[in-house]
């Protein structure tokens, strides 16, 4: 694997331009012991070799997508200033860039009026959404599907709010019948709709949830941390497309630019449809917000100090890749989606493998064929390890039997869970590398899977 380094030549030019903004100050230079610095950096480089090759197309396991060079460079450039996007005193330019970048994300969903900011990731974004929900629906229950991210239950516990998981249908989406039965108890204050579950990439049926909201009056939060950017692509199935087209009607929305938005960790974003919820954040900090009457981002955020570098990197990425349908950014997402569809078709046509529901985004769930749940689990782990030995990195995931029993009717369900393989085909390059990926899988399968004639 060759790491991209050619763009580093641009960083020195950009630093010279940045330095020119402070040339009226008295000369001041930081002394650096280059030899000592080199020794530590080489040690860091040696330690960092102990990683999976996340940027390479042969890494098709967890949700890890390399940041674009423009994001890396803009992030690094800003670190020479190290702005803090809490108060304008700590990051005037980067705060303005954050507001612009967040507005562009909101516009991607058709939102004009909004309140939002960047945060450390989806966990913090969902925390803020559920904190606001708890203030507006005090003591009411938070509900999300059984396949929603575990953070919702954990956040509810932190906030002291009751939580309940809702049954899923056979495609790992929230079951609307089970949801309505729960809503009839009048205990629910907030429903979380997941657009891109972590395990399967499934998209909850948002149109149906909105119909229930009109009937029962709950608050609706969309956890689109993983899938949000897919609103731009043109090759979704009809049900996913319908769900994404409704995102302009939810009360709040979480999205992670550090997943599909080409950003370094950590960069999440929380959006609220009603700017009036900003009043809930009101607090007194006379030593912080004194330099400007303009909105300080810390006044609408639960986090205090936040890296301005994340905003700078995101803003720069938007300049290079506007968030529009038909653009090059959307095309890259579409290639990952097509890679998942093509990979699913190949797996489904090969008797050595088992599949269930088709992917709705770019995550494929599959397994080596076995006669029982325990055999499939054992073979999945063996294939995971054998593929890794060939430098092809997958992921394993455990599902309840209730999710896959309708798809795998001819196996012995001798245990209540089954371990499967999971491939996140997040990189546009995955589509071009599918033949090579399949070649490795074919060789591995010949050693691991032995079907009975």
Descriptive account of the structure:
There is one protein chain. By secondary structure, the protein is α/β, with parallel strands linked by helices. The protein has two domains: 79-320, 3-Layer(aba) Sandwich (Aspartate Aminotransferase, domain 2), CATH 3.40.640; 328-448, Aspartate Aminotransferase, domain 1 (Alpha-Beta Complex). 40% of the residues lie in helices and 13% in strands. It has 15 helices and eleven strands. It has helices at 8-19, 34-48, 69-79, 92-108, 122-136, 151-159, 176-183, 206-216, 238-244, 308-320, 328-349, 373-389, 401-404, 429-432, 434-448; strands spanning 115-119, 141-145, 163-166, 188-194, 219-223, 252-255, 268-272, 353-355, 363-368, 395-400, 417-424. A seven-stranded mixed beta sheet has the order 1-7-6-5-4-2-3, sandwiched between helices. Strands 8-9-11-10 form a four-stranded antiparallel beta sheet. The longest helix has 22 residues, at 328-349.
